[in-house]
Write a structure and sequence with these properties.
Elements lengths: L1 E3 L10 H19 L6 E3 L17 H12 L5 E3 L3 H5 L5 E11 L2 E6 L8 H5 L5 E3 L10 E6 L8 E8 L7 E4 L6 H4 L11 E5 L2 E6 L4 H4 L12
Parallel strand pairs: 1-2, 2-3, 5-7
Antiparallel strand pairs: 4-5, 4-9, 6-9, 7-8, 10-11
Amino acid sequence: MGLACHIGSQILEASPFLASFERLCGLVRALQADGAPLRQLDLGGGMGITYAPGDRELDVEQLGAALTAAVAPLGLELVLEPGRYLVGSAGVLLTRVIGRKRSGEREFVIVDAAMNDLLRPALYGAYHPIVPVDAAAGERPTIRADVVGPVCECGDFLAQDRLIAPAEPGELLAILSAGAYGMAMASTYNTRPLAAEVMVRGGQFAVTRPRKTVDALIAEEQLPAWLAR
């Protein structure tokens, strides 16, 4: 038995976690006084990672020391849920440039990934670094462009008004820090099969979830008997 809370997401300093602990502390002591057999105190997740230039890096050693010292007098096991912190920076979405165009003063780099593959930018303006896979391409003078997908939606973008290397059709881009909430929020919208998942370790790689075909996506669809001919 225990208490749990979750105060938010992408937290990059210890003070909010300590503040949430202070709010819970009185309740813990009251329950303990009433004989409740508490064993754990779960302060949830929310530990952030660096996405945009200038983001501060969470000092996990400081956070761990501060929380351990705060919880110790209660005699409870401290539980944290550092999902994004562990996997966020480990995931990369690879996408290929399929076109370039200009509309007025705006430059567009069109890629084969879309909002269904990485929803965070369209959903709440999340920033993900976008870099060329070919290191030499990163030496070209940058351009200011929107990186957009091939889905016909005004929200189908992965970056807006971004300084990036001027990638040409056929080149690969890496959208970084996609390990948290990338695949979890992905969908097959617009009959787009989920991207394949590949695990890489050093010079080794393996496909851990192959990309489905469109036929597989629609395989379970069937006409009702009263429409069958």
